[in-house]
Amino acid sequence: xxxxxxxxxxxxxLIAFAVWLWATAPRDGRLPPNVLVIGQIAEPxxxxxxxxxxxxxxxxLANVYDGLVRFRxxxxxxxxxxxxxxxxxxxxKSYTFHLRAGVRFHDGTAFDADAVRFNFARLLEADHxxxxxxxxxxxxxxxxxxxxxxxxxxxxxxxxxQPFAPxxxxxxxxxxxxxxxxxxxxxxxxxxRRPVGTGPFRFARWDSGVRxxxxxxPDYWEGAPELEAVVFRPLKDANTRAAELLAGGVDVLxxxxxxxxxxxxxxxxxxxxxxxxxxxxxxxxxxxxxPFRDRRMRQAVNYAIDKRAIVEDxxxxxxxxxxxxxxxxxxxxxxPADGPYPHDPDKARELIGEAGHEGxxxxxxxxxxxxxxxxxxxxxxxxxxxxxxxxxxxxxxTFEWNAYLSRVNDGLGPEVDMAEMAWMxxxxxxxxFLALRGAALPDQGGFNSGYYANPRVDALIERAxxxxxxxxxxxxxxxxxxxxxxxxxxxxxxxxRQAIAFSTRVRGLAIEPSFLLDLRGVGKxx
Amino acid sequence: xxRTILLRLALLGPIxxxxxxxxxxxxxxxxxxxxLAILGPYATPDNIAELRRALGLDRTVFExxxxxxxxxxxxxxxxxxxxxxxxxxxxxxxxxPTLLLTGAALVLSVGLGLGLGVVAAVRRYDWLGSAARxxxxxxxxVPPFWLALILVLLVSVxxxxxxxxxxxxxxxxxxxxxxxxxxxLPAVTLSVVAAGVIARxxxxxxxxxxxxxxxxxxxxxxxxxxxxxxxxxxxxxLVPLLPVIGTQVGFLLxxxxxxxxxxxxxxxxxxxxDAILAxxxxxxxxxxxxxxxxxxxxxxxxxxxxxxxxxxxxx
Lengths: 526, 315
Prior knowledge:
The complex is a heterodimer of chains A (526) and B (315).
Chain A: H1 2-24, E1 35-40, H2 55-64, E2 69-71, E3 78-80, E4 83-88, E5 94-99, H3 113-124, E6 145-152, E7 155-160, H4 167-172, H5 181-187, E8 201-207, E9 211-216, E10 229-234, H6 238-247, E11 252-253, H7 258-265, E12 270-276, E13 279-285, H8 295-304, H9 307-314, E14 319-321, H10 345-355, E15 361-367, H11 376-389, E16 393-399, H12 401-409, E17 418-424, H13 430-435, H14 455-466, H15 470-487, E18 490-503
Parallel strand pairs in A: 1-10, 1-11, 15-16, 15-17
Antiparallel strand pairs in A: 2-3, 4-5, 5-7, 6-7, 8-9, 9-10, 11-18, 12-18, 13-17, 13-18, 14-18
Helix pairs in contact in A: 8-10, 14-15
Chain B: H1 2-29, H2 34-39, H3 45-55, H4 61-73, E1 79-80, E2 85-86, H5 87-122, H6 127-141, H7 144-158, H8 176-209, H9 213-220, H10 225-262, H11 268-277, H12 281-309
Antiparallel strand pairs in B: 1-2
Helix pairs in contact in B: 1-12, 5-6, 5-8, 5-10, 5-12, 6-8, 7-8, 8-10, 9-10, 10-11, 10-12, 11-12
């Protein structure tokens, strides 16, 4: 009897439960107006801008913090933010910033010259009492700072060890965002989970694995934003992300995979926008060992690879063909004149013949995944097929991402000829300086893992760093681009085109070339 | 009885020690450097070496293990470097959702499994029994990832009846009804395979029990068929079924890893996957210890239940 009743009870309970769910269901399943729900690809690691390295985290940071400067919306040009204006010394080594008056952090702490000094001391000085709230992986962006002087409460001067023109755009990067000294002193290592900045939104809560909520800062120095709150949800599974947008559970999806863009374009209540970022996907060619010591072989590979097929077929339009070491998102410094190496297998065969390496066997290292690596395995296979067509036989060896990084960043040994790599930077200087300079070899702490060295390139990088005039700098980068293109230390393949998809209820949303997210002007009316 | 419980609890120690040692060694052997995972692609060799020292990664695996186990015995699970917070805090936040999901899936799979199994055995000669048997077979065979996708597309996207993922609405505080609505799809997905397994075993055991004399006697003395089946046959069939249900708990805890990822359920399973991918040794260790403890304790409860149903066992 007991079990008979239990069975009947179980069935009745299930039915009652279903009825209850039905009865209590919200009649309007839509999200509340002026609360924007964003589906991210992962949980942030931390919300301490000096500790983070991932774009996924930067998108939240960009709305909680401000830097002294920021990128002008839609560009990678630097414009004022917490600093109203600045002067650069004639030697290119001193930067004086005049700070905006009356700005306060979300915890009430005044934003002043002392706060700026505190921020860079924590980041750069190993003996600073709060330096142990790190590690700060991107501190090298500011390694040229020799001293930070507070001239008065609203004026601060940076003395650099040497002229360093990328300094301004590094300040616009999240690593340069200003954090509240009071909050860091109070929370120590936990500051990353209790972030306090000056930005248009202030931190409200972080539920592990569920959401990060930020709320309108009514006292924002630029005027309060329209949105009442923004919720960032980590949605790791790509199908779940798509279903949430279609079902109305999120308003915005970040980093929409290529194969889903078409699905969203067919929806009347979903919009998709795209932008090409300051990203470069390339093959490092081993210029120290093997066939790629010969420039003709390096050029041959550039001619042999069908970049268009890779971006259109393998990547389904989620990237554009790259044409050199300066990504085209740096519109001010990029020279579109030469264009990418054309796909020309005949020319490639001719060059291989001249170099005397017909039928050579080459080893290609490929990653299994990784930050900015797009589809590394499929791309390696496409490259292998293209090179086979010009008579080069390629062996692919794949590695897990972290294992891959340590292997490639240590420099390519004689056993390997090519390695995939991708970088995303905020300044056209960063990549050539760290990965093409003759003095940036792996054993010197650099990332020049193919051992490329050309004094002309080194000189151009140096001159561009010393230039205080943007036009002069740009001219150096254009010259650099032409030399490196011709030398072909890398095979230039693709630049990532990111997409975001969002409900048409959302107004004012744009995709930035920096891939940061600027929600100041975004609204979501009923 | 008390002795059984104490003995089993005493065994928990060695079990957890073994589990932690295996996990620690496995993670130490797979490729990938935690220091590199933290610092990202821009790390210089100097930074990496410095961080490895700070994290104690420059010591031998056994030294690292000894330090870790010493801290754990003092109640310190360490700090997760991928999440930048104490491991204990993270587990405390994650364990509730996992218990809720596993519990709901267990109730569903046991209820549906036993029901289907009994029907399949008792009505084995007509269409209802065949239907129950087919349903059980289908439940075992259907791939959970496919089922999850279909349920989401149909119930959430097309019909709009239930939320796609998460444990509560994205904004504001959650009511119990809202949490229940979020629970339905993950719990159903998670329970299906276990329900199928339980149903098939229930059917087999019931078929064994039904021809026994005591069942015939119950019928002969004029009991209603319902009471014969449920009160006599089923009660005895339950004794060998309980250990099977116990192993299904382990399956549900493991299966939760996948279901939690798809439905964005903020539980331990998803935390563990992320921790493994991030080479977050301390978080993996802490999580696995808690999961193993859960498994052992739940199975102890099941054994006690079996003891209660059939006092001959374990006495």
